[in-house]
Amino acid sequence: MNDDEQFAQSLRTQATRVAPQIDVDVTRVVPAARRRRAARVGGVTLAMGLALGGGAWAATTMEPPGTALPGGSMAMAVEPSPEPSGPPVTSSEGDRLTDAPDNLPGGPVVPPEDWRDATYFHVVTRNESAKQGEEVDGYTPLGIERWYGDGVNFELRSSGPALRDVTGYLGMEGAEPISFTWAEIAALPTEPAALHDALLDTFEPTGMAEDAALNGTARLITDAPAPPEVRAAAWELLTSLSAVDVEQDVQDSEGRTGTAATFELWDRTTTVIYDEGQNLPLESEESIGKMHSLETFLRTEFVPLPDEVADSAIEIPDFTGMTREDAEVACLAKHLACTFEDTESDTVPAGTVVSSDPQAGALVSWGAPVTLLLSTGS
């Protein structure tokens, strides 16, 4: 019996327990995350990795399954997420990936309606860090592979893809933190002088606009979803600034040749190596005292989101109008920890769902808590 058949059998047993009067073909509600399809993007080798790694998700229920809650309601039990059955997934460049569940969203992600078909900023890097003069036995670089979207982000981990927090870009802390959104970066000027003025104006409230603009210019080149025209303007601006030393024909750690721009800012020295012909970053190196970090850019591209990555998120179904029994079956099928609460309603028939929290269409991970309001009538 394969994984899908085992899941269907388990779901059939639970569906019979909670809704014996309903005839449910549970083989048709196996989650889309189990139906892996080959990636549409050339060079992305997630399909094999996910088949081996199982694409596991950590359960994030806020209440233990089956726990009685105030008011006599009950959190539905959720099957544990599947354990990986093969070797860990690696990045599309073959590097090891993190196991740490950090940078997870603080709550459900409400994406744009067309999030599956939108364009994403796909970045694959190889990262190393060390203390000067020290070598760690057995140390291997860490791979990072991410898809940044306008409202929803993903990161590939050793167990498979996972939702990532949606962050701002070019951020600066202060009394009123400043950061750019995806749309604001896309709207930046593509002429170097105008770009410089726009950055200065934005960072003026920080009291260190020039330094912030220098830092922002470097970030536009490396780890922000800047359109190619904005990135080219940022590189031209960076290499024109008096605080920046420029050196031609420099090789990065991968043996690729580019132009290096080096500057000192705050407590660190930064060197960015850039391929001017292809308008792409190659490497970013930072030194803070004896600490040294190196980020090598292996891919920086705007691409469609691979199906394997999109399918890894669980989309909250529209529970509105379902009976409790139907909603329980849907919760089991989606691996959600649902809790039912009664509420009066003049418009929704008694015994059916009025609304859900999170709302329909929100993206969550396996085992996420969902509250369903059940009408008691008027």
Automatic annotation (TrEMBL):
Signal peptide: none annotated. It comes from the Bacteria. Coiled coil: none annotated. This is PASTA domain-containing protein. Residues 311-376 form the PASTA domain. Pfam families: PASTA (PF03793). It comes from Promicromonospora alba. Residues 63-112 are annotated as: Disordered. InterPro entries: PASTA_dom.
